[in-house]
Design a protein that fits this description.
The protein is 47% helix and 12% strand. It has helices at 22-33, 54-68, 82-94, 112-126, 142-149, 164-177, 195-199, 215-226, 230-248, 254-265, 282-297; strands at 7-8, 39-42, 74-79, 99-103, 130-134, 154-159, 183-186, 205-208. An eight-stranded parallel beta barrel has the order 1-2-3-4-5-6-7-8. β5 (130-134), α5 and β6 (154-159) form a beta-alpha-beta unit. α8 crosses α9 (230-248). It starts with 6 loop residues before the first strand and ends with a helix.
Length: 300
């Protein structure tokens, strides 16, 4: 399971009946695939993973797998309560997912050996590669990260904490003790803003929520980063990514709500977000439209 380039985290569309709109999800993935992502992460954070039933989760995974058709890896979200996570993992594998992104168990916090047992159980149930998501109550030290990286089936770590010092020590320890092929990527909301900093500690991959609605901006940013075009990187950050982050910070949950609203602005009826998330109001929608326009205007 090789991941490279821009990682695509599609939203999960909901129809007028309130259920997952599989046909709209297929179109959303189809449009994204036209811009060459290096991997598709379905039913994850941007896909409102916490709000999906097990049946809805499996439907989303099957839909993405069918649309991608083996062109790039499809990674499914899983996590939360152990029993639910085990079933999600098994059903995602049966639906054809190439791997899992394991969300942390948010409410039940245990010691390091408890987290190790949790990850082990889910990795065994899945039988496909598993990427850990470090965020919230999961903040690993280097020794803990090494122990988790040694679990059979664990192939990567996505960081949503943003502690660069901690991540630098984790990256060095895991690559020294486990091997150079272990995958790391920056999973902060609007990760492009911090992509240069993570690249400085040897973490080149990042998740791109912006790819959902302005894939041409997301791919241009990645190209500028890869080519060492510092001026291009700064231009896109100052005109698009930084203003988007400022708007995102105004309301809890906007890391998902703004993305879904922007996808609707682009002409795809993906519906509203589910509670406890809320859709942006008119003023914020106008501001979002201006930010998207500025992002396109900043393209080479």
């Amino acid at each position: 399971m090789k991941l490279e380039g821009v990682l695509f985290f599609p939203v999960t569309p909901f129809g007028s009946d309130g259920g997952v709109a599989a046909d709209v999800l297929a179109e959303h993935v189809r449009r994204g695939m036209a811009h060459g992502p290096g991997g598709v992460f379905v039913a994850c954070g941007t896909g409102e993973f916490p709000s999906l039933s097990e049946d809805e989760h499996e439907l989303a995974v099957r839909t993405a797998v069918g649309e991608v058709a083996g062109r790039v890896p499809v990674i499914a979200g899983a996590g939360g309560p152990l029993g639910a996570a085990v079933r999600q993992a098994a059903r995602a594998a049966a639906a054809g997912a190439d791997g899992l992104l394991l969300m942390p168990p948010y409410l039940a916090q245990g010691p390091a050996n408890g987290l190790h047992a949790y990850v082990t159980r889910i990795a065994e149930a899945a039988g496909i590669p598993l990427i850990l998501y470090q965020r919230g109550g999961v903040a690993l030290d280097p020794a803990e990260a090494v122990a988790l990286a040694r679990i059979p089936g664990v192939v990567g770590l996505k960081d949503g904490g943003g502690d660069i010092d901690r991540m630098a020590r984790i990256v060095n320890a895991v690559r020294r003790e486990v091997g150079p092929d272990f995958t790391f990527f920056n999973g902060l909301p609007t990760a492009e803003l911090t992509a240069p900093a993570y690249r400085g500690i040897g973490v080149d991959l990042y998740s791109s929520a912006a790819f959902c609605f302005v894939p041409e901006v997301a791919t241009a940013f990645r190209a500028a980063l890869d080519e060492g075009d510092d001026a291009g990187v700064r231009r896109l950050i100052s005109r698009f990514y930084a203003p988007l982050v400022e708007l995102r910070a105004t309301v809890p949950g906007y890391a998902v709500s703004l993305v879904k609203a922007a996808v609707r602005m682009e002409g795809l009826d993906v519906g509203s977000v589910r509670p406890p998330l809320t859709d942006p109001g008119p003023d914020h929608l106008r501001e979002l439209a201006d930010i998207v326009k500025a992002g396109r205007g900043a393209l080479p």
